Amino acid sequence: MADRLDTPLEARRRWLPRPRVDEDAFGKIAEGIAKFMGTPRFLFYMTVFCATWLTWNTFGPQDLRFDSVALGFTLLTLMLSLQASYSAPLILLAQARQTDRDRVAAEQDRQRAERNLADTEYLAREMAALRLALNEVATRDFVRGELRNLLEDILEERKGRELGARDAGS
Description:
Elements: H1 23-37, H2 40-59, H3 74-136, H4 140-169
Helix pairs in contact: 1-3
């Protein structure tokens, strides 16, 4: 039976099952490769590899050379092109995964900022309520002043009694 375009892909019969690939594991491997390709160590290794290749195929024994100088090191060019053709998708995959992580982190930061704003507004309301409540509470200075006034009143009253007793006794 020929594959029909109007039949959903899952309903088609397959002779060979499609391999299942763990995309997360593949993505982690791709990120590791992409991270390594962006290091000075990788650049050093590639430089040593290319320098060795060029030196061997230029100055090595004629019968052991495998890439021709006359043809412009065609095999080296093909190998570097192959490496670049695999590098670009791996780097793009790593960037896409990083973009997804950044999006999740930005969403978490936004939620955290909203919670912090709500907490700050709550604390500001609580502080305002405490200030209002403290305006009605007697402070230490107020109580001291009142006690001082009472003490002065008591002392004046005592003096007044003592003067009244002296005047009555004379």
